[in-house]
Amino acid sequence: MDSTDIAIVGGGAVGLSAGIALARQGWRVVLASRGPVRRDGRTIALMDGSVRFLEEIGAWEALAPHAAPLASLTIVDDTGGLFRGPPVTFHAGELGLDAFGQNVENGTLVESIARVAAATPGLELRDALMTGLSTDGTHAAVALDTGETLRAGLVVGADGRASPVRVAAGIGSRPWTYEQSAVTAILAHDKSHHDTSTEFHTRAGPFTLVPLQGKRSSLVWLTNPARAEELAGLDPEAFALAAEQQAHSMLGAMRLDGPRGVVPMSGLSVDRFTARRTAIVGEAAHVFPPIGAQGLNLGLRDATDLARALGPAGGDPGAPERLARYERARGPDVRKLTAAVDLLNRSLLAGLMPVDALRGAGLLALASIGPLRRIVMRQGLGAGR
C-alpha cells in the first residue's frame, strides 16, 4: 500500500491547482485522474483573485499569452418586460484595476496547469480512477482501478458534480435541474469587443459574449433544451447568424471560429464541505449556471482556502481543526453565491411582473449608485468575503 500525505481525486483545473498549492507548502501529494481534456468551445473568465492565485502557484506565466483581459462587464436586460432596467456597465478602473480578470479557453487552461503540476516537486500525477474510499481515525484508503491502494492523511474530492469521493464520504447533496441548456462556441466578428464582456439577460437565460484575443469572443447561450439542440444542429453559417441576431449585431457579422458544445444546466449544493479525513472542492461542492463568471473562480477559491486551512506541511493534514478551518472559510462564501445566482436565473425564467420590477429596480440602482456598484464588483471578484 502506497502512502502519501494528501490524495486528490480529479484532475481538472481546481484539482490540479490544489495539488500544486499543497505540494508547494511541502505536503506530499498524489493526484489520481484519467481522461483527455475536452474542447467544446468553453472558456473560463478568470477573475483577478483567480489570476493572482495562479500566479502564486506558478501557473499563470504559460497562460498569459493565451488570455484576453476583461476591462468592462456590461449587463443588458433583454427580457422584453415592461420594467426593463437600463444597461449597466462595470469598469475595472473604478476599483483601480486594469482588468477584472482574463478569459482563456478551458482546454488551454487545464493543459497549462497540468504541465506545471507535472513539474512540481512533491506532486505525483497518476493515470487512475478511484474505485473505493474508506476512512478511519488515522488515515484514509483510496482504492484505484490500477489495483493500487493509496494511504493518505487527507483525501480531496475534486471529481466533479457526481463526485464518488463526496458520496463515499457520506456528504449529503441537493441537486436540481433547470429547463435550460448552455450552447457554447467561439465566434469571430467584424467589430472590436473593446475588452468588454456583455451579458444579455433574456427570458430563456443569459446570452453572454466574453472577449478573446483579437476580434473573437466566446459564447455561452442559455436557452431551453429544444432550442439548444436546434442551435447545435445548425450549419456554421446559420448558427453564426443566429448568434449575431441575438446580440443585436453589436459586434457586427459573426463567424464560427471553433467547436460548439451543449451542456444541460443544473445546480447542486452540499450539506458540508468536509467529512472524516475528507474535503471537497470545485463542482464536487457546488454547481450553478454560468452567470457572472463565478463557477470555476469559486472552485479556485476552494483550492486557495484549503491550502490556507492546512498551512505548511507538518503534522496531520486531515486533523479535525484543519478541516474545521476549511469548513468555516467555504460555507458562507459558497452558499451566498449559489443562492444569488440561482435566484437571478429563476427570476429571468419566471416572467412575472413583480419579479421584473424588482430586477429592473436593481439594475437602475447599480447604474446610478456608484458605491453600490463598486460593492457588487468587489463581491464578484471575491474581495468582499
From TrEMBL:
<feature type="domain" description="FAD-binding">
    <location>
        <begin position="4"/>
        <end position="338"/>
    </location>
</feature>
<comment type="pathway">
    <text>Cofactor biosynthesis; ubiquinone biosynthesis.</text>
</comment>
<keyword id="KW-0285">Flavoprotein</keyword>
<keyword id="KW-0503">Monooxygenase</keyword>
<keyword id="KW-0560">Oxidoreductase</keyword>
<dbReference type="InterPro" id="IPR010971">
    <property type="entry name" value="UbiH/COQ6"/>
</dbReference>
<keyword id="KW-0274">FAD</keyword>
<protein>
    <submittedName>
        <fullName>UbiH/UbiF family hydroxylase</fullName>
    </submittedName>
</protein>
<dbReference type="InterPro" id="IPR036188">
    <property type="entry name" value="FAD/NAD-bd_sf"/>
</dbReference>
<dbReference type="InterPro" id="IPR002938">
    <property type="entry name" value="FAD-bd"/>
</dbReference>
<comment type="similarity">
    <text>Belongs to the UbiH/COQ6 family.</text>
</comment>
<dbReference type="Pfam" id="PF01494">
    <property type="entry name" value="FAD_binding_3"/>
</dbReference>
<dbReference type="InterPro" id="IPR051205">
    <property type="entry name" value="UbiH/COQ6_monooxygenase"/>
</dbReference>
